[in-house]
Design a protein that fits this description.
globular; 2 strands; single chain; two-stranded antiparallel sheet
Length: 111
């Protein structure tokens, strides 16, 4: 998201993440999922947050944590708390980015 200072970028991000409440006249945000269903920020804020990603300008990595620990943390931040679902998500993601061999390596040792 790009815009000049004061244009509302941070406010929009905070609203999408559920950190700033949405007033009645502030509109809504809707996401269409891979299976074609729609999720509304107003209708189901908790489900909506599962689909929102924030990519910081700088790396958001803790050097001492492993790939697995980072992904577990992200899962929990996204509201995935069941151990079985977390492990499935981690397995999918490390396969997706070819880090299966490095899943238990500390990120400071990755290129």
């Amino acid at each position: 998201m790009l815009g000049s200072n004061g244009s509302g970028k941070t406010t929009i991000i905070n609203m999408l993440m559920g950190l700033t409440p949405i007033n009645n006249d502030d509109g809504d945000a809707v996401i269409t999922t891979e299976d074609g269903t729609t999720v509304s920020l107003r209708g189901d804020p908790r489900e909506f947050k599962r689909y929102v990603r924030l990519c910081q300008q700088n790396d958001f990595l803790f050097e001492e944590l492993t790939v697995h620990e980072h992904l577990e943390l992200i899962c929990k931040l996204r509201g995935i708390i069941k151990r079985e679902e977390i492990e499935e998500e981690i397995a999918r993601k490390v396969e997706e980015v070819s880090l299966v061999q490095d899943v238990h390596s500390q990120v400071k040792f990755l290129s």
